[in-house]
Amino acid sequence: MTNNHPGTVSVVAVPSPDSWHREADIVVIGSGAAGMPAAILAREAGASVILVEAEPDIGGHAITSGGNVPLGGGTSAQKAAGIEDSPDLVFLDNTDWSVVQPNGFPDYRYNDREVVRAFADANVSTYDWLLAHGVMFADKAPDSQGGTSIGNSVPREMHAVPMHWTIAQTGKPEPAATAATRSTGNGLMRPLEAAARKVGVEILLEHRMTAIHRESPGAGRVTGIQAVHKGKVLGIRARKAVIIATGGFTGNVEFRRMFDPRLTEEYCGLGGMPWSDQDASGEIAAMAIGASLWGLYNQTGEFGIHLTKPFLIGSQYNYRCFWQPGSSVFHKARASGLPVNDWQNVITVNMLGKRFCDETEGNFTSNNHQQIKDYRYGDYRNATNIAYRPLNWVNAAMAGFGDGRNGGGPIWAIFDSAAAIRAGWTTEPPHVDRAEGFFFSANTIAELASRIVMKHQRVPMPPAALEATVARYNSFVDSGVDVDFGKPAPAHKIIEPPFHAAWATPTPHDSRAGLRINAKCQVIDRAGEVIPGLYCGGESAGGFSQHGLARALVQGLIAGRSAMEEPPAADPGFGIRERR
Q: Which helix H or strand E contains 225, and what residues bound it?
């Protein structure tokens, strides 16, 4: 055994066991937007399928998502709305070198053309497949809501609706008034779970993959996986193939720092957590048997939402999930967070109590329908007509303060009781997380600074510094001009006690780099050769910069279909030790 701790993925190859506990034709790792379709398709095609999921429930990050599904190419929904699209247009949109953002970063220039071509050709069939398997979309024309790097030419975004399904974030069904209109990943993943169980996919929850087995460490076909369930190590044989659908790596601190050394431990509010993690397990296990990474620019390029300003403050998990006490994971989330709709209500300061940027500045932008007016594919004017306008709140927040350390440290939103009233915020649990140090209050600014003590605050916040910062900002409200950072017309003084400091640190989200795959979603090794019997799709796969559920869904179906073409492995000559 190469793992020091059961449940930790091995960084070196693990030999196949002398005997297996379980076996199936296809073994799928992960039950999200790539894994569930792969499992269903393979099972419907006649394969026996075991799907292992590390968490107590299915869905991965997809179930906590906004349910926005950018599938185009000429779907029936597009045709009904009079939108002319085609697979060729999807391909061209997602490989156009000339599309750049106002900060100069290109959305599509470094996408793998082979991967995008396969995606484009399967958009329409994927949409039809989802409808046939119980997914319902809002009854409206495709739009651009929620789209990130999905193409400039036509609207493609559709929205899965929850209907009667229970919502992961609340633990309750969606209210009837919005059940057929609200876009949510619950409306995507719960119907697919039902479809998987109906056709006989064997779903093993709380089974954490810790190694992928190959005939030899750098050669031969993949033979199965090692998984840990409640401390017990199991070998699960795959007669045909293993499909990696583990959801990416942005929750793994040391792995993500290969792409950005700034992403140290304090960036702990990963989008989708604590329902599931993006722990790089699929990538690490595949790399241990020779797999290559791919499309690394797409992870560091400053476009889209792989790294974002928080949407919520005062809680660790500050993306958009807005966890409620009825959720099955609320004991892990601990707080719902305070939604920020107007950044005029707060100032943001670093560990030293100093402002660093205009608080109203937004996230990195990305291409979507009609972002570029008078767009023409591959036309140099697409770039030259864009006015340079970087949005650098995230970069400034991560810059630190010159102490020679990576990572910018915690960012705190400072506000007063008047701001809480204006924003409609309740500054007590379960709305904020005082217990774990993500929210503090005090009757004076100096006292507030002295109370900010938590594991990621590596230096004390000087009370005098925070007092000076607040006083200076209040003077900008009086004058109407922020001479430090250009915040437009600073609107509100911070003068009414109690005063509050709410966690407002940037949050990682998308994994847009990953394992190298080809058009069939076969994993490729560092010599450029296919690893027989190993497939990957979704956020664990590299080569495609698109945010959203579509690439995971499409690649899951491609992987499942391709895996069925694998010849079964020869019988290893020994039996299965046990079935349960």
A: strand 219-229
